[in-house]
Amino acid sequence: MKQLFLYISLLPAVAAAQGQWSMDECMDYAASHGAAVEQARWDLAAANADLTEAIGDFFPSVQAQVGAQFNWGRNIDPETNTYNNVTTFNNGYGIYASMMLFDGGQTFNRYRRARVDRQRSRNAVDLKRDDLAISAMMAYVDAVYYLNSMKIADDRLAASRDMLLLTERQEELGMKGRPDVAQARATVADDEYNRVRQENLYTQAMLTLRTSMNLPADMPLEVDSVAPSVTPEPVMDDAEAVYSLAAATNPRALDADMAVRSSRYALRTAKGLYSPTISLSAGISTSYFKTITDGYTAPSFGDQFRNNRGEYVSATITIPLFSGMSRVASVRRASASLHKAESARDEQLRRLHDDIASAVADRQGYAMEILALEAKTDADLEAYTLNRRKFEEGLLSMIDLQISANTYYASRVSLLQKQMLYILKTKLVDYYKGEPLWMSR
Length: 441
What we know:
Helix content is 65%, strand content 14%. The chain contains eleven helices and eight strands. The protein has helices at residues 6-9, 13-17, 23-33, 35-56, 106-172, 178-213, 239-249, 251-271, 301-307, 326-392, 398-432; strands at 20-21, 61-71, 74-76, 83-85, 88-102, 222-223, 277-291, 310-318.
């Protein structure tokens, strides 16, 4: 199966030297330079900060306080508790700590939610990279298809011009009439139009590829011009087995599951608001006092710093009784968010299942069509070659030859289209199995 991608996945050294891009190179560039990926990385940075904050909630909070105060005019003597009219200086120091011992699991559930959100943000980066890579892959397949369609149009135009030249000469010899020459010229004109149309479609496909890659306008881009050589193998993948692998590894399935887990932790946090909380506090403080105006000699700073020191330890139990309807509303909102996330997960998994079933069925169908089209193209080529020989011998009309040519070249285009679609669907099926979309440079 790994040989299915051939030229479209890996370029020969000569093609690389000429500046041609392989599919993997385009996908890798798109996944590395997309604006959506950069934004997802910033979301990841914010999620890391939220997780750090949630971890910090487990640790006690510690504060230090220093204060100084001058008092003058009428004030209270702290020693006699009487009024006086002196100028004093007060200086205080303190260290305080508090820690939540129990809050109904709010802190723990916030931490678990932050951890899931960080995992989800990491997965979002991979998801955005895969989305951009898939978009680039589809655009690349279109570009290669139209590039090779141009080559088929060139072959058809060259054959039509040869037939026009032959018909004009046969007219001069009296073997063909004027209507045959007119029909040959009309065929050439139609083929020239088709060639221009294919070139325009190729130009549009290249612009789409540039957009999907976020490639600067001044950077050259040329896709591999070698037509894909695909030999489908009769491999029958079980869609349910592929879905089982994708449900455990695909970024979209993981994102939906982590969204549900995050919402579940949010609901548990909201329910914790109904629970009593137990907190522990402790502190130590001291002070220095000095009277400035009455000549009073206060004890030294060191003596007061030691003698005025005080410590405390306290435990507090807070029981929530009534706070309006805020707690009820918080639980209801969290419950609604959980049900919404579960519904979104089911929908996402259903879509993933449908996408996998479609990709598996399409790949198998394209494989069967390729085998049939290969035989049809060979038969159409043989018929076209024989009819052309008959036309040269004057045994076939120009219209009949045109019908034979249309059938042959249409078969070539259809075969090319099915080959490109087969490669695309094979990539997607392998991706759903958990294999990487592209090989990084």
